[in-house]
Write a structure and sequence with these properties.
EC number: 2.7.8.5
Helix content: 55-70%
Order of helices and strands: HHHHHH
CATH superfamily: CDP-alcohol phosphotransferase transmembrane (TM) domain
Subcellular location: Membrane
Number of helices: 6
Shape: globular
InterPro entries: CDP-alcohol_PTase-I, CDP-OH_P_trans, CDP-OH_PTrfase_TM_dom, CDP_ALCOHOL_P_TRANSF_CS, Phosphatidylglycerol_P_synth
Membrane topology: Multi-pass membrane protein
GO molecular function, one term: CDP-diacylglycerol-glycerol-3-phosphate 3-phosphatidyltransferase activity
């Protein structure tokens, strides 16, 4: 007759590092990559919904209020990124929605500021054309079955920082009547140069990736 097996629950033993398993903190829950309703995604979607409001404010010459909407959008961008990291809630939707919301706001601000004469129209055209060139090129390569290997580059990050600074500065100075055309003019040419350079760099990078 087989011996009786002792089915007494095993006590929690030490881990490999010598710490009792029962005292280890619980591992943070990881949000599935296909999750939609996460706090970072909700904040990002709210930022995207703020774009029509910002456009309306600029077109109605309420640049003072548009400036604070623009600042709030920047703060929300930092918050949703921080939440995604600490709550382990990065998702596929968030990876797509976040840059779309950022670009939608930035491009809309440039186009509307140009339409009321605060920024030159040729600069708005250059900014829009650069983004269309990159996005269109990526889509064409995907359709051709040759997805490009595009990596973020320094000149592109510099261009984004300069674009944000110019947009915020133009809203602030024009909205509160603190016109300083010299500073704005300097940033206009810096944004123009970096926009052209980053667009050319991405085209070159994509061409080398296909070679």
């Amino acid at each position: 007759m087989p011996e009786a097996v002792d089915r007494k629950p095993a006590e929690a033993g030490p881990s490999a590092e010598g710490t009792p398993l029962s005292t280890l903190p619980p591992r943070p829950a990881v949000v599935p990559a296909d999750a939609y309703f996460t706090w970072p995604n909700v904040i990002t979607f709210a930022r995207l919904c703020a774009v029509p409001g910002a456009v309306w404010l600029v077109l109605n010459h309420r640049l003072d209020l548009a400036f604070w909407v623009f600042v709030a959008a920047g703060v929300s961008d930092a918050i949703d990124g921080w939440l995604a990291r600490i709550r382990h809630s990065r998702s596929t939707l968030g990876a797509i929605l976040d840059p779309v919301a950022d670009k939608a706001l930035l491009v809309s601000i440039y186009v509307t500021l140009a339409s009321i004469g605060v920024l030159p129209d040729w600069l708005a055209i250059l900014v829009v054309f650069r983004d269309l060139l990159i996005v269109g090129g990526v889509l064409v390569l995907y359709v051709l079955g040759q997805p490009p290997r595009i990596q973020p580059i320094f000149v592109s990050k510099l261009n984004t920082a300069l674009q944000i600074t110019l947009a915020a500065g133009a809203l602030l100075l024009a909205g509160y009547g603190m016109g300083d055309s010299v500073v704005i003019d300097v940033f206009i040419w810096l944004v123009a140069a970096s926009t052209f350079a980053s667009g050319a760099a991405y085209v070159t990078q994509a061409a080398r990736g296909r070679a």
